[in-house]
Design brief:
Number of helices: 3
Pfam families: DUF983 (PF06170)
Strand content: under 5%
Keywords: Membrane, Transmembrane, Transmembrane helix
Number of strands: 0
Amino acid sequence: MTFGHHQGGDGPTLVAASVSGLCPRCGARTLFSGAVALADACRGCGLDYRQFNVGDGPAAFLILIIGAIIAGAAIWLELGLAPPFWVHSIWLPLLIGMTLLGLRLGKAALLVQEYRTGPREGRLRP
């Protein structure tokens, strides 16, 4: 087994695809067309990414989780060190950066998982 591919050799691993923005079919670095915007299709193999319903599923969880982390860190910093007020200006860029990175990773992971399991609506077994 080589690094970055799962055992079948038919595409990158979930981690490699998510971190590097790789096409789940061919492994080309074509998943994103912008910072967090998914491309319409892979320029390498032609896989249509629009067929996958990734949406903004990761966004709500990221805002809650990252917001709690940033708020906790800001409170800890204020109560523990009592720095000048301007020191707290670090939180906004940190919040934005963590959210963008998390959105990229989350969207890529959801798309790769949906590719592997097949894009279809959920059904309950009778």
